[in-house]
Automatic annotation (TrEMBL):
Domain of life: Eukaryota
Function: Accessory subunit of potassium/sodium hyperpolarization-activated cyclic nucleotide-gated channel 3 (HCN3) up-regulating its cell-surface expression and current density without affecting its voltage dependence and kinetics.
SUPFAM superfamilies tied to this protein: POZ domain, WD40 repeat-like
Protein name (record): BTB/POZ domain-containing protein KCTD3
First and last residue of the signal peptide: none
Transmembrane segments: none
Organism this protein belongs to: Amphiprion ocellaris
Region (Disordered): 131-160
Keywords from the UniProt entry: Cell membrane, Membrane, Phosphoprotein, Repeat, WD repeat
GO biological process: protein homooligomerization
Keyword Cell wall biogenesis/degradation: no
Any one GO cellular component localisation term in the record: plasma membrane
Gene for this chain: SHKBP1
Amino acid sequence: LQTLTWVPDSFFSSLLSGRISTLKDETGAIFIDRDPSLFTTILNFLRTKELHPRSINVHMLMHEAEFYGITPLVRKLQLCDELDRSSCGNVLFNGYLPPPVYPAKRRNRHSVAGSQFMAGRVVPVERAPVRRSNTMPPNLGNSGMLGRMGGEERTSAGPSSDPGMVRIICGHHNWIAVAYAQFVVCYRVKESTGWQQVFTSPRLDWMIDRVALNAKVMGGSLGDNDKMVAVASVTEIILWSICPDGNGNEIGVFSLNVPAEALFFVGNQLIATSHTGKVGVWNAVTKHWQNQDVVPISSYDTAGSFLILGCNNGSIYYIDVQKFPLRMKDNDLLVTELYRDPTEDAITALSVYLTPKTSDSGNWIEIAYGTSSGTVRVIVQHPETVGSGPQLFQTFSVHRSPVTKIMLSEKHLISVCADNNHVRTWTVTRFRGMISTQPGSTPLTSFKILSLDDVDGHGGCSAGTEIGPYGERDDQQVFIQRVVPDTDKLYVRLSSNGKRVCEVRSVDGTSITAFMVHECEGSSRIGSRPRRYLFSGHGNGSIQMWDLTTAMEIAGKVDIRALGGPTEEELLELLDQCDLALTRTPDSTPRASTCR
């Protein structure tokens, strides 16, 4: 009795004092429905107060110790489990941006109805919290935006999302834009001063679904120093210019009239597209917004000043956005067909590679695309084929589900299909920068990026959790894998072989709700070069940064472990954190925005 009850308020002290009812077997022994092999270690600890961790499974024993309420053992196991974890992160941890202050509400200079956008939103179920370590610092959310929100403000975002969590991160040059439920924040980095918050939008009446950032405007009437950021919710788009002093001016509110599935900049032009067949363009010079009807859009990419659209009718179209807002003139159509798939399958993924000799006329161009039937094709247009348009170069029939993502880079062709993000990667051979021999018929690799999502999408925005591939201008592309919705862990994997480059884990134990890989420019110092970073947004509103350039260098110097994504043991541990009934595997329907 003394051995079992020396820990106060434990399971045994409550059981043997009568506070917990007992279940006895036919011999009169008290029956406890737990693992007897693990109980051996529990009992030995109660006898000797000693623990020999090399002979035990720390995670499984911690579950048992927590069940029995043996606090000294739980504390020891936590220290063993988190010996390699720190609130300062590991060598890859590069920075921490605390949650911003919640901004004041936007004045309705333009009439933007808020109530209509809440229709059809789903009330979220209660989320299981990620376990936090006792050695981790306290959650900083209450000292940031959430600490400054009143009860009325907490509910103003509607029932569909936590207003304090990060929904989307996007980057351009040395800037990032971070979208929360109802406002967007911009940061910029300088080597001497680090990351600084330079713009916060007013609080909007509706939920942000998309965000676009232009941090380097070349020419135009806005001036070279001004930056622009835009957000979209369903059909409405708001655009701001950011002045050198950090203040922002609202340029205008525009409507696509249909839900905007993609929002991005091409030079000075802000572009919004919808799978229903609408393209909206705002030009910085003319300050004019124009909607253009096209056939239903299922993918897109950009090439210089051109917008390339993959459509449901099997055609690839291009638009020279510099010609907006001009309408049809001298038979010069705004939307021109570039190529039609031989089988007329929907073009569900698209990637344009511009060779070093590419001119503005688009004569040197290579395009890889995927279709709804799973076919992957490469088409090329070199100077000798200008008269007849792009020519079909090679076809791969290796996917049986719709292709959802594709990337053609200098050294690789990568495709992903809807079958649990099944990846295929081929080697590309080039001569003087142009594709010269067909990619090998046998892929370099074949693997899956398993990523479960909330079935109702309440956990965040799909635009903020794109798996990649990231790094189109780099020698090696990477995928980012977040296995379950409520997790503090991401896996970074090479596109060429699926191997794990590194694993990053939230330094404050908060769940990761958005992520993005972005390359920041080097400083003006001699020898400085751009560096790739992984930005993770969290449930408490913070941003955490990880140095992928260092991770790639470390991986290149040592043999990369045979590990790819999560091992079976890691996967089961992650799945313990979520209810599979509330999740779904990647949708088999094509996405409107696939490459970027």
